[in-house]
From TrEMBL:
This is Branched-chain amino acid transport system II carrier protein. Keywords: Membrane, Transmembrane, Transmembrane helix. Gene3D superfamilies: Sodium/glucose cotransporter (1.20.1730.10). The keyword Repeat does not apply. The chain crosses the membrane at residues 12-30, 42-64, 91-114, 120-141, 148-171, 196-218, 230-254, 274-298, 310-330, 336-354.
């Protein structure tokens, strides 16, 4: 078999697109990492992250590969491919509703962030991000991935800056990390789960349901399986590294983040007011890239991108989201959606394992763009 060639540029873009999609408002503000990992202390948080990374790497490797090999006309077809017609349709609609709900609350988060730091009315900030996201989604999936694929590494670089600053602080205060690691569990931060290991597992399955269709769509743009899988795996490893750096930073700067809604912004301001300004902009950039991706993925369930139907639906969904995002409670809705998504992801993974390892011929998929021919491609 001839060895598949890869493009380093394309692999980097695929990895960056994964990071850009996953680092939305929850991650970029530091709240996700705080509640899922940091609150349990450094040692438990890092071990939990490694468990999360192991699960995520397999999921991404599989889904990027499935997307590249199957070339679904609709990325949501991946649910029918793994779960069969009826359960697949349920997951499709469940995923659409879930993603759109997250899209709406992310717009609310964008407005709140812009208002908090820049003093601009929340509705103007939310509307601005919504319109930019719409314009990006209308460019089509290839352009979208190229754009957010550049944004992803920028986010990772900032996490590295925060992590390096934490290490410098630790050098002058050797006992700070261990002391704060024990103290952080008593401060009263919200926890995603009562068990640190289960928290990491839930975070992996949350990512699965949140990004399933996008991962498939992302993999489709690669020219071969090797390129798709490599881009996905590198992205997953980079994200796990960013999580670990943020766990260390949030423990080191415990006194800085205590009582703060946006821990990363508080840390950035503590390091340097100029860095705080830059990170406020990065948070908005994080939300913009995630919102653009979600809008593209949700609309793709109803229409092919860059068509008149797609453009109309994307515009309508944007307008509804703009107004909905100004009235819905950001934090409560996100928490509710994330918990439900994580548990539903466990069930979905069971179907994936069954098809990948037990019965590759289960749920034969009928491709709508191939003269309704039954196909079952092993990934």
């Amino acid at each position: 078999m001839e060895k598949q060639s890869i493009s380093i540029k394309k692999v980097t873009i695929l990895a960056g697109a994964f990071c850009a999609y996953m680092i939305g408002s929850g991650f970029s503000t530091g709240q996700e990492v705080l509640q899922f990992f940091s609150v349990y202390g450094v040692a438990k948080g890092i071990i939990s992250t490694l468990v999360y990374a192991a699960i995520t790497i397999w999921l991404i490797y599989t889904l990027y590969g499935t997307g590249q090999k199957m070339q679904f006309s609709n990325p949501y077809d991946v649910f029918e491919y793994y779960c069969g017609k009826y359960i697949g349709k349920f997951y499709t609609w469940y995923s659409v509703v879930l993603l759109y709900g997250i899209y709406v609350v992310m717009l609310a988060g964008a407005g709140a962030t812009i208002n908090q730091y820049f003093g601009i009315p929340a509705y103007i900030g939310g509307y601005g991000v919504a319109i930019l996201a719409l314009l990006t989604a209308l460019l089509g999936v290839e352009k979208l991935i190229n754009i957010i694929g550049v944004i992803g590494p920028i986010k990772i670089v900032f996490m590295i800056v925060v992590g390096v600053s934490a290490f410098i602080t630790m050098a002058s205060q050797p006992n700070l990390l261990s002391e704060n690691s024990a103290l952080i569990q008593t401060v009263g931060f919200q926890q995603a789960s009562g068990n640190w290991l289960w928290s990491g597992i839930l975070y992996a399955f949350l990512g699965l349901v949140f990004g399933n269709a996008f991962f498939v769509m992302n993999g489709q743009t690669a020219k071969n399986l090797r390129e798709a899988r490599l881009g996905g795996v590198i992205g997953a490893i980079a994200l796990a590294g960013a999580v670990i750096l943020l766990i260390i930073a949030e423990n080191v700067y415990l006194d800085v983040i205590e009582g703060q809604q946006v821990p990363t912004l508080a840390i950035a301001n503590h390091i340097s007011p100029a860095l705080g300004l830059i990170f406020a902009l990065i948070i908005v950039l994080c939300i913009y890239s995630a919102v653009s991706s979600i809008l593209q993925v949700v609309t793709r369930n109803f229409a092919v991108d860059k068509t008149k139907k797609f453009n109309i639906l994307a515009t309508v969904l944007t307008v509804v989201g703009m107004f909905g995002g100004m009235v819905l409670p950001f934090d409560k809705m996100v928490n509710l959606l994330y918990v439900i998504a994580a548990y539903s992801g466990i069930v979905l993974t069971g179907f994936m394992i069954y098809k990948e390892f037990i019965n590759k011929n289960a749920f034969p998929f009928r491709k709508s763009n191939d003269e309704n021919k039954d196909v079952d491609v092993a990934v």
